Amino acid sequence: MKLPYYRPGPRSLSFSLLLLLVLTLLVLTGLGVFRLYFGFEWLAGDNDSGQLFALNVRGGKSFNLFEAGSFGRTFWTGLLILIMQCALMPLFRLPAATVLAIAAAVGVGLLHYKFSSDVPRIPIEFELLTVFVLYGMYVLLSYIGEVRDRKRVHRLLSQYVPAELAREYGRDPQAVSLSGEQRNISVLFCDVIGFTAISEQLQPNELTEWLNLYFTYISRIVVRYRGSIDKYMGDSVMAVWGGGIRSETHAHDALCAGMDMQAELDTLNGRYRDRQLPQVSMGIGISTGPAMVGPLGSEYRMDYTVVGDSVNVAQRLEAQTRKYHVPIIVGDNTVAELPGMLFRELDTVMVKGRSKSVTMYQPLGSQEQLNEQVMQLLVRHDKAMAASKSGDWGTAESLFSSLRDDWGPQSMYELYLRGIEQARRG
């Protein structure tokens, strides 16, 4: 049978030294080099001081180590057994360490039985107690070390897989499947607008500082809504909801995260201004749908990620924010998951690499968050879109023109008007 053991290292050495220190204190106590005497006296009602009780602690000794005679073979052999226990236990895992402790107890018992004619310096009861105190100390130290190891592994694992998955693995490794599985998820793509121009203005160390601030800002909001960062790609961030751990609110959480990123952008830009760095604007695309979730890669490198049509759509939607000049674009699948939110329909397009069209929307917020004016503008916009789809170009042109002046963005409505003009010519 092969006993599970640890390789000798700083931890096992420190554990052995701590156990030897405890052993020294116990041996000196057993010899009577120093002792503590406790006294308790109940005083309630015995005097007028109001004192209820008195606890007395006195120190003393009953044995002079320097004037003692021979300790005898029983003492030294027993001490050798205890020293070996202190030195060897930290090299083994708990089951083997338990066997060592039992063996030490048996050895002490046999030693006192074989040399029963000798008068022991330390009673057998105290030596056996010392064996089990040392074992208890080892168990406590091992538990503390294991807790610290788990925290360190969790921090390390969280850098490569979603934090929720790392926590789940820490609780129950068998509960986490390391093979891919299909799930409904929501994916958010966030990309800096004009990053090339920004990178040209900055030195490499300044660009690193700029990106670290940006990634920290995005990641903090993703984590706030229980999402996970899938990867950083240049100046882009891909975040996933429902990937590491299943979620019934993945679409809502992803949308709230995206809206907070845009709403709190002034905070990030304020930090950039304080450091005399270029400010940032960004586009966000969100898509919802089925995807394969799990490890992907080769024998040389694996990555826990998501793949599927939803990932491609989210990336393409983010690219459309430049064309329509809106901060966030979501797909129709995400809109279907959020009946309590209001959206402005933007267009129906063919996404590159996809045979089916996608209807794009700009999220506006919940009905409670929007005032009456915005609600009326949204109704006009929906009428304009319906007229455009039915070929009623006059009505659509009139409504889009008024919305361009009353709502905006102007460039988006100019795009619609140019489309109507082209349709009339064609």
UniProtKB/TrEMBL annotation:
Q: Which UniProt keywords apply?
A: Lyase, Membrane, Transmembrane, Transmembrane helix
Q: What is its EC number?
A: 4.6.1.1
Molecular function GO labels:
adenylate cyclase activity
Q: Looking at the record's lineage, which domain of life comes first? A: Bacteria
Q: Which residues cross the membrane?
A: 12-38, 99-116, 128-145
The Guanylate cyclase domain extends over 186-318
> A biological process (GO) annotation for this entry?
intracellular signal transduction
Keyword Lyase set for record: yes
The name of this protein is Adenylate cyclase 1
Q: Which InterPro entries match?
A: A/G_cyclase, Adenylyl/Guanylyl_Cyclase_3/4, Nucleotide_cyclase
Pfam families under this entry?
Guanylate_cyc
Do the record's keywords include Transmembrane? yes
Using the UniProt record, name the top-level EC class of this enzyme in a single word.
lyase
